[in-house]
Design goal:
Layout lengths: L11 H8 L6 E4 L6 H9 L5 E6 L2 H11 L5 E5 L5 H7 L6 E7 L4 H5 L25 H7 L2 H10 L6 H12 L7 H11 L11 H11 L2 H15 E11 L2 H16 L12 H4 L3 E3 L4 E2 L2 H6 L7 E7 L2
Parallel strand pairs: 1-2, 1-4, 2-3, 4-5
Antiparallel strand pairs: 5-8, 6-8, 7-8
Helix pairs in contact: 1-2, 7-8, 7-10, 8-9, 11-12
The chain binds S-adenosylmethionine (SAM).
Length: 312
């Protein structure tokens, strides 16, 4: 029997409270995971409320079917939230969605299950795909990518200043043997890291960078945000929880752009929101997890939640 890995949901009450404004509405949980947020959304919804879950990970989909298979208000779609528009259109709800939630990044089951290949702590096949049914694994990419591409990925998405040394070491090693496991990769990048930081695994940033690249995490996020704005109804809400600055920067800029509207129009002249193309208003400030939550769950320490409401 496969081991059951748990996920502790971050900002559970805060996110659902911000999301659900109409108990009979249509909601999307774009990152179903293990259904922590979805479960509370369903508790809040009336009999005629509807929730659609989305996840890239076939294991998350299997979990959703097992857990909510009998729940008539719920459905699950396998794929990326970058396909939001087509999933929503298929349900005839384009421009009518009451709320969209994204709780970004990887789930604890993905990280903790060594066989998924995300972790530098546990040895496993070097996979790192959230969607194990398609795309290239980290091992396949590392076997074929140019040294400069590997360096760029580790630098840009891992924010690792020793990216060039690491890429060089990877390319030198792969000429000797195939790099197919997480322990091989973590050893190579750790040895190429000349400045180990206290309390931080020297492979942390390189693994983050490669994972973000393999799963197209930032591209999918940018694409989803544009679609989310169009899929929401006026008054509908976008709730996004980010776990690192690269994600949060994209979310923050996206919301700001649509809160401020067209910045090229001269200020001081009374344009209407329509003319300024103002589409969102902020709902509160960025929210961080309480100290009680971060004490129980270290993952929550880096979480930032932003909420915006569509105004036009
Ligand atoms: C942090 S977990 C979500 C946990 C969930 N909120 C809960 O409480 O159980 C993120 C989930 O989003 C999924 N995911 C990440 N990026 C995705 C994308 N572009 N499209 C669909 N699912 C994605 C991952 O597979 C993972 O299951």
């Amino acid at each position: 029997m496969s081991q059951e890995f748990k996920h502790i949901t971050v900002l559970l009450q805060e996110a659902v409270e911000a999301l659900v404004q109409d108990k009979s509405g249509f909601y999307v949980d774009g990152t179903f995971g293990r259904g922590g947020h979805s479960s509370l959304v369903l508790e809040q919804l009336a009999d005629d409320g509807v929730l659609m879950g989305i996840d890239k990970d076939p294991q998350a989909i299997a979990h959703a079917q097992e857990r909510f298979g009998d729940e008539s208000r719920f459905s699950i779609a396998h794929g990326s939230f970058a396909e939001l528009e087509s999933f929503v259109a298929a349900r005839g709800m384009s421009g009518k969605v009451d709320g969209i939630l994204l709780d970004l990044g990887v789930s604890s089951p993905q990280l903790d299950d060594a066989s998924r290949g995300f972790s530098f702590m546990n040895d496993g096949p070097l996979d790192m795909r959230m969607d194990t049914s398609s795309g290239e694994s980290a091992a396949e990419w590392i076997a074929r990518a140019e040294e400069s591409e590997i360096a760029d990925v580790i630098y840009t998405y891992g924010e690792e200043k020793f990216s060039r040394r690491m890429a060089k070491a990877i390319v030198a090693k792969r000429a000797e043997e195939a790099i197919t496991t997480t322990s091989q990769l973590s050893k190579i990048v750790a040895e190429a890291n000349p400045a180990w930081e206290k309390g931080k695994n020297p492979a942390t940033r390189a693994f983050q960078g490669i994972r973000i690249h393999i799963n197209r995490e930032l591209e999918d996020l940018e694409s989803c945000l544009d679609q989310a704005l169009e899929m929401l109804k006026v008054g509908g809400r976008l709730v996004v929880i980010s776990f690192h600055s690269l994600e949060d920067r994209i979310v923050k800029r996206f919301i700001r752009k649509h809160v401020k509207g067209d910045e090229h129009l001269p200020r001081g002249i009374p344009f209407t929101n329509d003319m300024l193309e103002i589409r969102f208003k902020n709902v509160g400030k960025a929210v961080k997890a309480s100290s009680a939550e971060t004490e129980d769950n270290v993952r929550a320490r880096s979480a930032v939640m932003r909420v915006a409401e569509k105004v036009a």
